[in-house]
Description:
Blueprint: H1 2-15, E1 22-30, E2 46-54, H2 61-64, H3 84-94, E3 98-104, E4 108-116, E5 139-143, H4 147-159, E6 163-167, H5 170-179, E7 186-190, H6 198-208, E8 214-218, H7 226-231, E9 236-239, H8 244-256
Parallel strand pairs: 5-6, 5-7, 7-8, 8-9
Antiparallel strand pairs: 1-2, 2-4, 3-4
Helix pairs in contact: 1-3, 5-6
Amino acid sequence: HQVVVNLCTNGLRAIGTEQGHLRVTVKNIPRSMLPVPPEADTDSASFVELQIRDSGKGMDEETMARIFEPYFTTREQGEGTGLGLAVTRGIVQKHHGFIRVESVPGEGSVFSIYLPAIEEEYDGVEERHEEDLATGRERILFVDDEPAIAGFGRSFLKSLGYHVETEIDSVAALAKFTADPTAYELVITDQTMPEITGLELARSMLALRPDLPIILCTGYSAALSEHEVHIAGIRRFLAKPLDTKILADAVREVLDG
């Protein structure tokens, strides 16, 4: 779901305030019809193509050559971290897939994700029901500069019974917390955000309230160790994309102390 969220968010931002369209399609494609790169490292006979097409502003060749670089962004300062596509590529490669991008300035872009198709039916996965997930009634502040992820956090945690507020601006989140440090029983924050990182936000909040439970989430953790996170006083460190079962269990575990 993180791949879809990231690419749809990028597409919507490319369209901006203008009238446009965002189209998502899924289909199976035989391997023989695709130039599968060696790094895909799979013998799968077919691939699932997830294609996201937008009618936004498009990209030139120079921009396309850099879009998967961590921290590269064409947005204005403060509007994003430039990690969305880097994280997307990492997730796809982890699943032995690959990405193709086509774009024409002024016409839009097409992102095509190819993942190896499962050859045989697999019935070993147990269905995950909502009642299997840990629930609660506590007040949570969820901070992420990506509106789609913040929205996911709010809707998912509210479905478990929690009272949730979200912020897409880390500075605003700190101001809200500073105004009333006892307003929340848990803070969940992304790490890589403009202005104030999740680690910096956590340190500032813990300076005001040392017993505050905090969960730090990140999709690009090369510069951040789990040891560093715990030394800062953060209770849990979760990797993106967030798994609903892992998130629900982590929230309950941290709140229960």
